[in-house]
Amino acid sequence: MTAPHHDFIDHETGQPWRVRFVRKGDHYGHDHCLTHEEAEPLVEFYDRRFAGHTFPDEGQFVSRYYVSTLLKRRGGRLHLDGGIEAWCISADGMREAMGHVAIWQAWTIIHP
Fold first, then answer.
1. Which residue in 83, 86, 96, 104 has the fewest CB atoms around it within 10 Å?
2. Burial letters for 6-42: b for 16+ Cβ neighbours within 10 Å, e otherwise?
């Protein structure tokens, strides 16, 4: 399976991102060598600043969360890595990312 994704620019920071929705049976991890075996989907975030140059076309992997973890958030910014300032998505960027996650989640429920 190919995991759906959405590329966007965080307009507050100018940072390009890829958000990737990993369902059961999708490949993920370094070089996509792992297969997601759990029912609960994952959401991956990639920094796309150097996509296709220093890093693969999807960009540099930054972080991965279970969908339920992200859905429990009350909005606002998401700091993906406290050690790298650029790896923070603004509240508006997270609304955009989570809008796509919600669509993918609904599609997965309708089309198991």
1. 83
2. bebebeebebbbbbbbbbeebebeeeeeeebeeeebb
